[in-house]
Design a protein that fits this description.
By secondary structure, this protein is an alpha/beta fold. The chain is about 40% helix and about 15% strand. The protein binds guanosine-5'-monophosphate and manganese (II) ion. GO terms for molecular function: nucleic acid binding.
């Protein structure tokens, strides 16, 4: 948490006269959108307006969140976003650890003279004016809750704010399953429910949104899951042409990597997907226990993330990428 002195300085900045901006990472997920909107709604209860910016568009299944449609998507609104960032007095950076994770707006933020406040749970954060980084917390949404509590603004957590914070904790813990889910997490969840978050509605609006084409895509990927390293590593992959064939939409492959990890005996799952626009392969890694995919991805795939959930990239072809991956895991993992 921020020191008491930092908290009082930050609190003094959160007033109606200041331009407050909240930004989150590229390919925003439930925790990214949830923490940004959860903070925005709480600030609004304090009489402070904030503008939320994301680098690129986010999946449809997150757009039910209150005011999700007011979020400025930088890839579509470059001029407006440049103007908002230029005028900003305070920029909250949520759910990412380095400006290189937010695309071209990272350079704009680096140049801005605004006060930059990082709240994040990824490994090895860069320097910002104020940093609240804790890798033991399962979701940035939980950190926003702790931050509001430290400001003595728990009463500012409205129903809208509670719904957003609940969503990010639910998605980043894989439905309250992952290792860093704690008793404190559940206490916070209880408080968010009391403030109006509806578990059934949120789970359903977020997760029960499959289209037939997504299930067909999933069945294709599952039909060719490959196990290597004596069944401890699962490999899933998808090519651009296949995505197009199934009428792929943004976010359609979200969560697919977890199916690999659900196989008995598997300690690490890797999902390789050709990017739709650019010529590279986006990789998602998931693992169990102490198998550190953050370090693995940093070492070999130009990425990072958390111990049990990380991402990376490869510039090779799919075939060469899979070969390289197999050869690395044959000597490095487990
Ligand atoms: P996902 O596999 O869901 O895209 O990402 C899993 C986790 O790794 C997320 O916390 C995400 O922020 C992080 N991550 C994903 N891709 C990258 C990357 O290319 N670089 C870094 N540093 N982190 C990533
Ligand atoms: Mn997160």
């Amino acid at each position: 948490m921020f020191t008491p002195l930092e908290l009082s300085t930050i609190k003094n900045l959160l007033i109606p006269e200041k331009e407050i901006v909240i930004v989150t990472h590229y390919n925003p997920d439930g925790d990214a959108v949830g923490s940004s909107l959860g903070l925005k709604h709480a600030l609004k209860m304090q009489g402070v307006e904030a503008t939320v910016i994301v680098p690129n568009d986010f999946p449809k299944f997150l757009k039910w969140m209150p005011e999700a449609r007011q979020i400025l998507v930088a890839e579509f609104r470059r001029k407006k976003v440049a103007e908002v960032l230029h005028n900003a007095d305070v920029i909250f950076c949520l759910d990412f650890n380095t400006l290189s994770r937010i695309g071209f707006i990272g350079e704009w933020i680096a140049r801005s003279s605004a006060v930059k406040i990082l709240i994040d749970h990824h490994q090895m954060p860069d320097a910002f004016d104020y940093v609240y980084s804790d890798t033991s917390v399962p979701a940035t949404c939980q950190m926003i809750y702790h931050f509001l509590e430290a400001l003595e603004w728990q009463d500012k957590i409205s129903k809208d704010s509670a719904e957003c914070l609940y969503t990010g904790i639910m998605t980043d813990t894989g439905g309250f399953r992952f290792r860093s889910t704690s008793g404190i997490t559940h206490h916070i969840i209880a408080n968010l429910i009391e403030k109006g978050a509806d578990p059934a509605q949120i789970a359903s609006d977020t997760w029960d949104t499959n289209s037939i084409s997504r299930l067909h895509l999933l069945s294709l990927i599952l039909s060719r899951v490959e196990l290597v390293k004596e069944g401890q590593v699962a490999i899933l992959w998808l090519k651009r042409a296949e995505m197009k064939q199934f009428g792929f939409e943004k976010g359609a492959t979200e969560g697919f990597v977890n199916y690999g990890l659900s196989i008995q005996g598997v300690k690490m799952s890797a999902f390789f997907m050709e990017d739709l626009q650019e010529d590279f392969i986006k990789i998602s890694f998931r693992s169990k226990d102490d198998l550190d995919v953050n370090q693995f991805s940093r070492n070999y795939f130009n990425g990072g993330g958390h111990i049990n959930a990380a991402g990376g990239r490869s510039e090779l072809s799919m075939e060469d990428t899979l070969e390289r991956f197999k050869s690395i895991v044959s000597s490095e993992i487990c």
